Amino acid sequence: MKISSLFADPGRKLFSFELFPPKTEAGRLALERTIRDLAELSPAFVSVTYGAGGSTRAKTLELVQWIDREARLCAMAHLTCVGATESEIAAVLDTLVEAGIENVMALRGDPPAGQEKFERTAGGFGFAADLVAFIRKRYGRKLCLGGAGNPEGHLECRDIDQDIRHLKAKVDAGLDFVVTQLFFDNRFYFDFVARARAAGISVPIVPGLMPIRTLAGIERMTKLSGASIPPALQAELERCREDEAATLSLGIAQTTAQAVELLHGGAPGIHFYTLNQSPATRVILTALKTARLA
């Protein structure tokens, strides 16, 4: 099923989860349990990340197919430009199409570990818009394409207006919907959507949220993503620094409050960055369902 078809119902809010391929057999078994647990929440789709430089390429393809065939959930594979030529990217896409996967998250991708800046591979693509255009030319509408948006601006482009122009180029190249990078202040999302609409971008823009589990973990993620933490939330996190249970409870409360405001404000759904964990996301989505927001 193409995710784009799910957005056709304006009255439906879509809830989805992002996972990453595990590195070990034990991790794989644990993730399968997590997926089965999350499947009970009836997500609209589940996406699987793609390691820097295609380092998890085979595992991404394997996990996406397992989600589709065994868990019987709508699956979306991430695909990046990093470290791959046009022909290598085409081979990955051919494999996905042959396996019946219809959804791809088309990304430029982050530089591999140890490399400060993105470097275009000879014979590859330098921008996500180029990748999107290539997929559309090669496969037409056979695939549904998602892309990334940055409410606080990309780490390499903190100029929001310029970032919106980059997003517009991706949408014009063929994106069907956008999922945002994580954020903790909803004003960034609502302003981002307003700017996108003013620029002529009409595709659904889904907010991406990450429940906070530990202070160290979220500090690492915000450094990687460029997201900021509101002062009041930062102060409370500092107060709970040595209490993991309190930090987790605060994270659940924060994400639930964010989701409620976003949904009331017109967001088409929520994409949860789960970090391969189910408890927090399960509590949050259950609360939203109880409040009849999901």
Please characterize this protein's 3D structure:
With 294 residues, this protein is α/β, with parallel strands linked by helices. The protein has one domain: TIM Barrel (Alpha-Beta Barrel). Helices cover 47% and strands 15% of the residues. An eight-stranded parallel barrel has the order 1-2-3-4-5-6-7-8, surrounded by four helices. Helix 10 packs across helix 11. The longest helix has 21 residues. The chain is globular. It starts with a helix and ends with a helix. 43% of the residues are buried. The model has no long low-confidence stretch (mean pLDDT 92).
In short:
The protein has helices spanning 3-6, 25-39, 57-69, 86-98, 128-139, 160-173, 186-198, 215-225, 231-239, 244-264, 279-290, and strands at 14-19, 45-48, 75-80, 103-107, 144-149, 177-182, 205-209, 269-273. With 294 residues, the protein is α/β, with parallel strands linked by helices.
Strand arrangement across the biggest beta sheet: 1-2-3-4-5-6-7-8
Structural class: alpha/beta
In CATH's first tier, which class applies? Alpha Beta
Number of helices: 11
The secondary-structure element order is HEHEHEHEHEHEHEHHHEH
Q: Rounded to an integer, what's the Rg over CA atoms?
A: 18 Å
CATH architecture identity: Alpha-Beta Barrel
The major beta sheet can be summarized as:
8 strands, parallel, barrel
Distance between the termini: 20 Å
CATH topology: TIM Barrel
| Overall 3D shape | globular
Domain module count: 1
Question: How many β-strand runs?
Answer: 8
Query: Helix fraction?
Result: 40-55%
Q: Uncertain regions: pLDDT < 50 for 5+ in a row? A: none
Q: Would you tell me the overall average pLDDT?
A: 92
Q: Strand share of the residues?
A: 5-15%
